[in-house]
# Entry
Amino acid sequence: MYLLDTHTLLWAAGQPEQLSLKVREILMNPDNRIYVSMATIWELSIKKTIGKLSIPESFFTYIFETGYTRLDISEPHLQAYRTLPLLHRDPFDRLLVAQAKSDQLALLSRDDQIRRYDVKTCWE
# Structure
């Protein structure tokens, strides 16, 4: 089971050539369950609203129509978040790390800051 980092979701949707071969294989395998966090949806919504990201409004429903599984933010995720060392200042990335750790998911990310945490990641 895998959790998509925000950049991984955007690249999967619009620039799949940016993804590593390993990540493309993971995403294309129908036996893999792929999660998208509501933290990612929240981050993308903020960036769209303030003009830092140009994506159609339909993107927010499209991603779940493609077969990705929605991952809500739960109290155990927030408990895990509070225990993380401050290795990365991005609160959305930290929440993704906490969710991945809490739910035993591999985080599909090429972010070197995320790899500093004790969390399973996949990219190369």
